Amino acid sequence: MSGASVPVSVALGLLGLAGGIGITAVGPGGVLPTIGLFALTGLTPAQVAGTALVTHVATGVLATAAYTRSGQLRDPGTRRTALVLAVSAVAGTPLGVLVNAYVSERMFGLVLGVFVAGVAGLVWFRERRRPAAPRAHPSTAVVAGLGLAVAVAAGIVGIGGPMLTVPLLVALGVPVLESLASAQAQSVVIAGVGTVGYVAQGAVDWPLAVLVGVPELAGVLLGWRIAHALPTRHLKYALIATLFALAPYLALHG
């Protein structure tokens, strides 16, 4: 499927750009390239996941560097959260790659769509019902469990870790920018380990990875600037809207 038509190539490039913006601005953007590869190409589920994860290696590294430069990853609490997420991803991602061969597209799309909608509802409820006050970072055990679950899901379908990690951390009371920063470090591990697994299966379309990944990198820098330009409350509502918009597609398209 490397020889994609011009309209498909343009669409995939735009989804890569939008996905990169979403990764560093609100978190869930990493699912957009996966959706594009799934809906617009003839790739198998394993090829979709493998090709999408390849693009997240570079975006994760760039996003991590960006949030280190802006100071979020210099905070001890944020660094601890990022480290725990990254370590748990080492264990969870290979399991997701293995499960990919046994989970039907329809069932997983439905489960993921319901889960994404639930996360959006949780973030919305917390924003509406509780004052925006700083809270301590979640315990190591909670972060490790969250990171393991996200890594398994990311390994199965090739989504970036920030899609699920950011809203879950926000729901647990972690500030948005700190959640975004922690999730980028986790994404590097998920993408790197997942790429090794799918490359071993021969399930990566390299030309499509480049087609999607290059504009995705540009989007990462743009999204990082957007995240620092908008008020935190606006970022939370953008996150909620993005998740609610993606949930039906994930549930029905599977």
From TrEMBL:
Pfam families tied to this protein: TauE
Membrane topology: Multi-pass membrane protein
InterPro entries xref list: TM_pro_TauE-like (IPR002781), TSUP/Inactive_protease-like (IPR051598)
Keyword Membrane among UniProt keywords: yes
Keywords, alphabetical: Cell membrane, Membrane, Transmembrane, Transmembrane helix
Transmembrane segments: 46-68, 80-101, 107-125, 146-170, 206-227, 234-252
Subcellular location: Cell membrane; Membrane
Name by which UniProt lists this protein: Probable membrane transporter protein
Species classification: Bacteria, Bacillati, Actinomycetota, Actinomycetes, Kitasatosporales
